[in-house]
């Protein structure tokens, strides 16, 4: 199961897993985009429209997959978003929205997936976090807090299930060439008066490799977490060297 599978990193992860021989359940709010992704995959795909911030829809999504294919064996909690604002302008609603999507939704998905994984003595959970799970950045306090929180959730969960055959990891990308980054580019352009190309260049230069990360590079790292049973409790940076650890 891949959440946020309709575009960007989620779409790339779904393609990578499908190419590796997995059946992939695609979860996001928009059915049309999910169907487009499903039609592009080389292997079997299940379209499961759901809002992961709604606990009832999360449970229904898992039940749908279980009814068709059986228990979820690999969970990639990728759905997420962020808004930019100075801390003093960050409203309670902005704060709550960031925590709900970026922290609470992965928690609920993990809680729902784990019992069957533990029963089978095998499972893989990968959360797509961010480099701001490991450092602070200005203008994104709510997003940063939510990503720090989800990395803590990953680490605690990994320690809890380490001897069970289940692994829990996070992948922490920098700025990736996705529609989510396009929104950031637009925000920078509006705030600074720069053109979109110049705004995008600012983000690219924040990474030592001098470019945006490709979604496929994130997907490859997710695949590593799925295939390697000795990787557990990690937050693996995919950021061109911006945060060294």
Descriptive account of the structure:
- The chain has two domains: 2-174 and 215-238, NAD(P)-binding Rossmann-like Domain (Rossmann fold, 3-Layer(aba) Sandwich), CATH 3.40.50.720; 176-212, no CATH class.
- The chain has eight helices and seven strands, in the order βαβαβαβαβαβαααβ.
- It has helices spanning 8-19, 31-40, 55-69, 92-120, 141-161, 179-192, 196-205, 215-227, and strands at 2-3, 24-28, 45-49, 74-77, 123-128, 166-173, 235-238.
- A four-stranded parallel beta sheet has the order 4-5-6-7, with helices on both faces. A three-stranded parallel beta sheet has the order 1-2-3, sandwiched between helices.
- The two termini are 29 Å apart.
CATH 4th-level superfamily of the largest domain:
NAD(P)-binding Rossmann-like Domain
CATH architecture of the largest domain: 3-Layer(aba) Sandwich
Number of domains: 2
User: In CATH, what is the class of the largest domain?
Assistant: Alpha Beta
Given the C-alpha coordinates, what overall shape results?
A: globular
Number of strands: 7
Structural class: alpha/beta
As a percent range, the share of strand residues is 5-15%
Distance between the termini: 29 Å
What string, H for helix and E for strand, traces the elements in order? EHEHEHEHEHEHHHE
Major sheet details: 4 strands, parallel
Give the mean pLDDT.
Answer: 95
What's the alpha carbon Rg, rounded to whole Å?
A: 17 Å
Count of helices? Answer: 8
Topology-level CATH name of the largest domain: Rossmann fold
Low-confidence stretches: none
Spatially, the strands of the biggest sheet line up as 4-5-6-7
